């Protein structure tokens, strides 16, 4: 079932980040705060508006993900590539930092 | 090459200082993103999927070795050790941090470079024939005029907030290597019957979601009128271009909706008022700029011909590289060398810092300290003695820069696509890589002959797919990547927009589909002299559609 998380890019370096359950912006999607119903998704939207004002992140978006065991799997390829890095340069991006499933 | 004068230095330094302050205020929270975004874009700073991207302007694609070494240094110091040469003759860094941008711009300014007007609704980096000043078929060097346009358009107060971005390209040969007819303004430098230099002026070309071939609105414009006439065009566009709809805001839509005849009338009327204004170019000013682009002194090197003949005989791979990647120079003892940034299976347009340094070293020693960036995402050494071709080739070989495929099917233009770009809807680089691998065999490529294959990862068409002999457009459909094929496009002097074949192909199918098209071409061409484009123009899309879709139907 599709659920939602909040993602953005960090202001200082543009790195993709996700809003964690503790309110911190995380470098990896696993651990992101998951909205499982409409009210929670609306709360994420609100959190996004606040986040923009906080000047920590930019380009804030709510995205659809699937819960696969302990991992979160973005529905759109675009978000899977953001989560990992360029599919043509596996030595770059987050995929270079830790083992992860192939984006494609 | 052009050298900055005091005004240029002061101008660029002031802009760097201004942006440094803006970045500091943004990081301190004094500017919101909404306030900062247009400011960073004016300085070439985009946000992509994984990081910021900095687009560095390379005016008319010309670089010195010193500048190339600086680009390598920035890649190494502030990025991840590489850069991406684009179809706009620019360089993009994919990973710089915002906090480092002012330092990067400082470093660029040290070598007379910047990132101004590489984004935003202004007149962008002026592009030109990448063989300018060297090609045997050139009538006149387009770069002095591109430089005049650059100076005139930089931070032009009247044209900094146009309805949409604006791109000008200049070519100086009958053979159009700068794709001028798919630019907002295309200038074709030529001689009239009296032997005077002037321009044929094209307006309203472009790619993107509404591809259009530019209309010629003047057959011969004297050089002295370059800025008055360009200003007249800009004024008509600035006043009448649509600001209500981003997708209809380019001048091509204005030309289309107004009609060429009426638009020309409006431009000519505007021009009458400007023709004898201060913008009229005095010959002394033209000569002053022209002096920066005087051809280098090239000593006669006739010994090269016999050396080349021997080297060719001894090494057929070298011979193939010479045949494919070396173009005739004005001076018969010299050649124009295309350094392919398209190794088989590689990422089109990417170069590592080490490769950039190597090219800089080679250019310094063997090409009069000059390098060009082509809109086809390759690098050019414009002045290499025939006698030095073998040593240049050997040096290029040391870092995978001697692929003999210029103009062949593996010399693919590809935008960054969904691997990097925030606007992309599908990946383009992996498709380019797989096609390159499929057609890797040099003998097969040579047999296929000239074939320009261009791939874009979204409708904005940075990969120039509309003017590819074979064009591929990647889109997202029902959550999957889907690739649409167009055929018969061409960005040269006989400019055409490609025809879409029909339904698109999945990522798994697309390489087979391209091979099907190429195989059909090989079957139906009259002989090896008939290129893919010529065969398409003779026969139209039918045989290719038949091959593509009847085979698909058979397979199903």
UniProtKB/TrEMBL annotation, chain A:
Cited Pfam families: DUF2849
Lineage top rank: taxon: Bacteria
Xref: InterPro entries: DUF2849
Name used for this protein in its record: DUF2849 domain-containing protein
Lineage: Bacteria, Pseudomonadati, Pseudomonadota, Alphaproteobacteria, Hyphomicrobiales
UniProtKB/TrEMBL annotation, chain B:
Superkingdom: Bacteria
Gene Ontology MF terms: 4 iron, 4 sulfur cluster binding; heme binding; metal ion binding; oxidoreductase activity
Nitrite/Sulfite reductase ferredoxin-like domain location: 52-111, 338-396
Organism: Phyllobacterium myrsinacearum
Domain named Nitrite/sulphite reductase 4Fe-4S: residues: 119-271, 410-529
Keywords for the protein's UniProt record, in alphabetical order: 4Fe-4S, Heme, Iron, Iron-sulfur, Metal-binding, Oxidoreductase
InterPro entries given in the database record: NIR_SIR_4Fe-4S (IPR051329), NiRdtase/SiRdtase_haem-b_fer (IPR005117), Nit/Sulf_reduc_fer-like_dom_sf (IPR036136), NO2/SO3_Rdtase_4Fe4S_dom (IPR006067), NO2/SO3_Rdtase_4Fe4S_sf (IPR045854)
PANTHER family: BLR3264 PROTEIN (PTHR32439:SF9), FERREDOXIN--NITRITE REDUCTASE, CHLOROPLASTIC (PTHR32439)
SUPFAM superfamilies: Nitrite and sulphite reductase 4Fe-4S domain-like, Nitrite/Sulfite reductase N-terminal domain-like
UniProt-recorded name of the protein: Sulfite reductase
Keyword Cell division: no
Iron-sulfur is among the record's keywords: yes
């Amino acid at each position: 079932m599709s659920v939602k998380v909040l993602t953005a890019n960090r202001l200082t370096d543009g790195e993709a980040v996700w809003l964690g359950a503790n309110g911190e912006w995380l470098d990896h999607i696993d651990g992101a705060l998951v909205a499982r119903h409409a009210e929670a998704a609306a709360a994420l939207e609100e959190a996004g508006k606040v986040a923009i004002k906080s000047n920590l992140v930019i380009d804030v978006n709510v995205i659809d993900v699937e819960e696969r065991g302990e991992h979160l799997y973005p529905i759109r390829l675009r978000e899977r590539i953001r989560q990992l890095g360029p599919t043509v340069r596996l030595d770059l991006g987050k995929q270079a930092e830790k083992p992860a499933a192939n984006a494609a | 090459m052009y050298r900055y004068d005091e005004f240029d230095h002061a101008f660029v330094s002031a802009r760097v200082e201004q942006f440094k302050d803006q970045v500091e205020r943004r990081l301190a929270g004094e500017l919101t993103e909404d306030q900062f975004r247009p400011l960073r874009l004016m300085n070439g700073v985009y946000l992509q999927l994984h990081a910021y991207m900095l687009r560095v302007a390379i005016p008319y694609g010309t670089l010195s070795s010193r500048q190339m070494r600086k680009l390598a240094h920035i890649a190494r110091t502030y990025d991840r050790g590489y850069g991406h040469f684009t179809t706009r003759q620019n360089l993009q860094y994919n990973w710089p941090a915002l906090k480092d941008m002012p330092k990067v711009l400082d470093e660029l300014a040290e070598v007379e470079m910047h990132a101004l007007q590489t984004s935003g609704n202004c007149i962008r980096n002026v592009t030109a024939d990448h063989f300018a000043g060297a090609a045997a078929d050139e009538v006149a060097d387009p770069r002095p005029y591109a430089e005049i346009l650059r100076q005139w358009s930089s931070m032009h107060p009247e044209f900094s907030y146009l309805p949409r971005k604006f791109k000008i390209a200049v070519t100086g040969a009958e053979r159009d290597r700068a794709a001028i007819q798919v630019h907002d303004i295309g200038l074709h430098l030529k001689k009239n019957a009296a032997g005077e230099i002037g321009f044929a002026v094209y307006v309203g070309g472009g790619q993107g979601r509404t591809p259009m071939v530019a209309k010629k609105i003047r057959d011969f414009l004297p050089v002295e009128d370059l800025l008055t006439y360009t200003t007249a065009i800009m004024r008509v566009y600035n006043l009448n271009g649509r600001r209500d709809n981003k997708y209809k805001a380019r001048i091509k839509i204005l030309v289309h909706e107004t009609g060429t005849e009426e638009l020309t009338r409006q431009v000519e009327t505007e021009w009458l008022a400007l023709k004898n204004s201060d913008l009229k170019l005095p010959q002394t000013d033209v000569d002053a700029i022209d002096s920066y682009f005087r051809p280098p002194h090239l000593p006669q090197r006739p010994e090269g011909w016999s050396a080349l003949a021997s080297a060719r005989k001894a090494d057929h791979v070298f011979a193939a590289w010479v045949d494919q990647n070396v173009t005739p120079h004005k001076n018969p003892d010299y050649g124009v060398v295309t350094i392919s940034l398209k190794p088989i299976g590689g990422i089109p347009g990417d170069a590592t810092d080490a490769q950039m340094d190597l090219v800089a070293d080679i250019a310094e020693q063997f090409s009069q300290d000059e390098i060009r960036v082509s809109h086809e995402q390759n690098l050019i050494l414009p002045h290499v003695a025939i006698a030095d071709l073998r040593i240049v080739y050997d040096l290029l070989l040391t870092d995978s820069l001697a692929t003999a495929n210029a103009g062949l099917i593996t010399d693919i233009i590809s935008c960054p696509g969904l691997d990097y770009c925030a606007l992309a809807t599908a990946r383009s680089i992996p498709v380019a890589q797989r096609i390159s691998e499929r057609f890797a065999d040099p003998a097969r490529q040579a047999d296929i002959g000239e074939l320009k294959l261009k791939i874009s990862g979204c409708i904005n068409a940075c990969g120039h797919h509309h003017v590819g002999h074979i064009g591929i457009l990647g889109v997202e459909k029902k959550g999957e990547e889907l690739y649409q094929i167009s055929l018969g496009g061409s960005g040269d002097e006989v400019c055409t927009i490609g025809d879409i074949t029909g339904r698109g192909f999945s990522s798994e199918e697309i390489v087979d589909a391209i091979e099907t098209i190429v195989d059909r071409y090989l079957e139906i061409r009259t002989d090896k002299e008939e290129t893919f484009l010529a065969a398409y123009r003779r026969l139209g899309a039918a045989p290719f559609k038949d091959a593509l879709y009847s085979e698909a139907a058979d397979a199903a």
